Amino acid sequence: MALTPLLAAPLAACSGGSGGHAVAPPHAVDAARLVHTSAAPDADPGQPFTVTAQGGGTVTDVVLSGPGGRQVAGALDTDGHGWHSTAPLVPATRYTARIAAADGHGGRGETTAEFTTKQADHLLTVTLGPDLGRETYGVGEPLTAQLSEPVSDPAARQRVEKALTVSSTPAVTGGWYWVDGKNLHFRPKDYWPAGTRVKLGWDGQGTAIDGAGLYGGPSSGLSFTTGDRVEAIVDAAADQLTFKRNGEVVSTMPVTTGKPGFDTRNGIKVVLGQERSVQMKSETIGIAQGSSDAYDLKVEWATRVTWSGEYVHAAPWSVASQGVDNVSHGCTGMSTDNAKWFYEQTRVGDIVQVVNSHGHQMEPFGNGFGDWNLSWEDWQKGSALGHPVSTEAPPAAAQAAATLKPQVQ
After folding, report:
1. Whose CA, among 44, 82, 84, 161, lies 20 to 30 Å from 58?
2. Catalytic residue at 331?
3. pTM here?
């Protein structure tokens, strides 16, 4: 792309005192002859835009702007020999560079270069979770990122993680875990503190994810607040549920859990949703109608903890067994009054932990949020970056500076 010279007006000079030597004023030169740029039709957005001095000149300043005048961050070489952009360029976007250069002999000038980046072969779009159907979640709610295309290369995964920003007040230590090539979960080392303000963002727009033409798609973000720390501990051996709020026991109530052959899963589960009433049919868990274990029931005050159909719900037909024996098909059953109270005291993201059951361990992924069943040590192994991160938000001054920092989003 040809450079367009801009002549710089000479600055007024001051003469020295008696016997001094006059300083020659700067004079305008054709800066286009002093620099070479990487501007080209269909420029690769995955590569930085560069300006290189030539013919003995030096680069003194560069302002690279995109749509709406948004500036792209960059840096001069320490020797003044060149400049390069440090923020990612966006595919299919037109940029203008205003370049100032000097010839080393008192000559100064400006020139411009324009170029358009090529269209990305593929855009990686990211769907963030939780799905904001509410403003407040329980302290066990993990963050999720679902990618539009699988990413397997370790270096590409690192770029994805770096572009996923998590901040919270108060700050915690946490990390991402690659469930598979398209799904990541983020959780703190421990549950979120009660009353935490959480922000999640995808800031990878324009970032070259891999070397095969995959670039980050549009930026996005979400935020929510955590409520009280609510934990329901279901002891399948004692047939009791202990309800705790912020560490204090609020209530204990008799329950029944899964009978032999249908034992309730052990481990930590996260509330996925709540239904005032739901029709439960045995076929959904592989029990055919006609079997002695078959059922087709309308169930009230149902709090879901697995996608496969495990709930905490009203079971008025088993009140005589509650607190005494386990007779359900895997759910935690209680009286209608107790189930209604439980339903009204919990929210999506709260913790339900089953202990002392003969059932298998809750799946970490794929059947709800079993993320908390992985030790912190094992969780860190799922990160491409290989280390935990702090969710500390930048101070207000740094945030203001970041807002003013030239960068195209």
Report:
1. 44
2. yes
3. 0.79
